[in-house]
Design a protein that fits this description.
Layout: E1 8-12, H1 16-27, E2 43-45, E3 51-55, H2 61-66, E4 72-76, H3 77-83, E5 88-93, E6 99-106, H4 111-116, E7 121-125, H5 128-138, E8 142-146, H6 153-156, E9 162-167, H7 171-175, E10 178-187, E11 189-194, H8 195-200, H9 202-216
Parallel strand pairs: 1-3, 1-4, 7-8, 7-9
Antiparallel strand pairs: 2-3, 4-11, 5-11, 6-9, 6-10
Helix pairs in contact: 1-9
The structure holds adenosine-5'-triphosphate (ATP) and magnesium ion.
Length: 218
């Protein structure tokens, strides 16, 4: 029986993060014993008795790792920017779940002109922190409206002039007559590590880090 001092817990979300992390886990000899899409289990064992996975909401991943409930985690840069990264090391860009954070507005909305004239902009977003910093750095006055999803709807019904959201192919934007008016930051998923755990379980963590680095091509 392994005691907790030797078990490594990795927090990650199901869906695209889980799917795209599978090959990296495989490279570290870690095969999940269940598929989280089918199982309702939130703690999943693996082919390695010293490694288990926690299935968490994407935006909760940094929190689990920050407080040491998991030594490692896999989280989108978008989520990390909102969280702030307190108590976390971010040693590795995994280059998965890649997309970009952008400002989008209805076709025909003169974003550049509104910004130039110093007009006030109503912006709907799930990414309050990133949006606040982006517009503050540009000196643009904004009223931010917090949403939890389907941001594309907001400009269509007059709730906002623009949105700050993740864009990959842009097809959701196009389907709703929106387009990117400004890029904010490229996004991909990062390996995150609890700072205290890195000292206490350095060897175990380093082995996983090395396997991931190699699989990512570093
Ligand atoms: P929830 O669905 O629980 O509200 P979420 O939408 O953040 O949370 P996912 O859709 O699984 O959860 O996204 C997880 C991560 O994948 C995001 O934090 C982001 O880093 C990345 N991601 C989101 N959308 C895309 C996309 N269209 N293309 C590539 N990566 C994306
Ligand atoms: Mg989503």
């Amino acid at each position: 029986m392994l005691d907790a001092a030797h078990v490594i817990t990795i927090a990650l979300s199901k869906g695209r993060i889980f799917d795209e992390t599978l090959p990296l886990l495989e490279a570290a000899g870690i095969r999940p014993s269940e598929n989280p899409e089918q199982s309702r289990k939130l703690i999943i064992g693996t082919s390695r008795t010293d490694v288990r996975l926690l299935i968490v909401r994407a935006s909760d991943t940094p929190t689990y790792v920050q407080y040491g409930a998991a030594e490692l985690g896999i989280a989108g840069k978008d989520v990390l920017l909102e969280h702030g990264g307190v108590g976390l090391y971010q040693p590795l860009d995994l280059k998965i779940a890649a997309c970009r954070m952008a400002v989008a507005a209805p076709e025909g909305f003169d974003y550049a002109n509104t910004v130039r004239k110093g007009g006030r902009l109503r912006v709907a977003t799930k990414y309050m922190q990133t949006a606040r910093e982006h517009f503050a750095a540009k000196g643009v006055h904004v009223d931010l409206i917090k949403l939890y999803g389907s941001m594309e709807l907001a400009p269509l019904v007059g709730l906002a002039d623009a949105i700050v959201d993740l864009v990959s192919t842009g097809s959701t934007l196009r389907a709703n007559n929106l387009c990117v008016v400004e890029e904010i930051v490229p996004i991909s998923a990062r390996l995150i590590v609890n700072q205290a755990a890195l000292k206490l379980k350095r060897e175990e963590i380093q082995l996983i880090l090395d396997a991931f680095s190699k699989a990512v091509g570093l």
